């Protein structure tokens, strides 16, 4: 979205539910942090593509998508920059998250296999 100097700034919707706030914190902060910690755990655990670490990684990715969906359905969803979010933003989030998370998971498992030798 291009910058439009004639557009008046719009205040982001106010979050009035603790559940929606928690969902926002999950998809925006805690989820990505958890994925980094789990990727490190996958590398440290050693070879194996279907370990508890891998399952936890998949669960966190699913929780992140679910949390983003909960926020979107609340009517108070915003982007990272504070702009009101639309369903297009949600779809873009999923389209970016899934391949990036898959690449991170594959890289962590390959690093785990590389350290096994």
Q: How would you sum up this structure, described in words?
A:
This protein is mostly helical. It has one domain (27-114). The chain is built from three helices and no strands. The chain has helices at 18-45, 52-74, 87-114. The relative contact order is 0.17. The model has no long low-confidence stretch (mean pLDDT 89).
Which keywords apply here?
elongated; 117 residues; mainly alpha
Helix vs. strand class: mainly alpha
Instruction: Note the beta-strand portion.
Output: under 5%
Enumerate how many helices there are, as a single number: 3
N- to C-terminal separation? 48 Å
Helix share bin:
55-70%
User: Could you give the order of the helices and strands?
Assistant: HHH
Low-confidence stretches: none
Shape category:
elongated
Largest sheet: none
Number of strands: 0
- Give the number of domains: 1
Radius of gyration: 17 Å
| Mean model confidence by pLDDT | 89
């Amino acid at each position: 979205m291009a910058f439009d100097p004639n557009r008046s700034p719009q205040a982001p919707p106010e979050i009035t539910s603790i559940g929606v706030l928690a969902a926002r914190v999950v998809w925006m902060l805690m989820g990505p942090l958890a994925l980094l910690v789990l990727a490190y755990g996958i590398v440290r655990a050693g070879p194996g593509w279907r370990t508890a670490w891998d399952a936890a990684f998949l669960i966190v990715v699913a929780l992140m998508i679910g949390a983003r969906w909960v926020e979107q359905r609340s009517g108070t969803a915003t982007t990272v920059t504070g702009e009101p979010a639309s369903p297009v933003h949600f779809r873009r989030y999923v389209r970016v998250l899934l391949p990036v998370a898959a690449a991170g998971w594959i890289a962590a498992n390959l690093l785990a296999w590389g350290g096994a030798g």
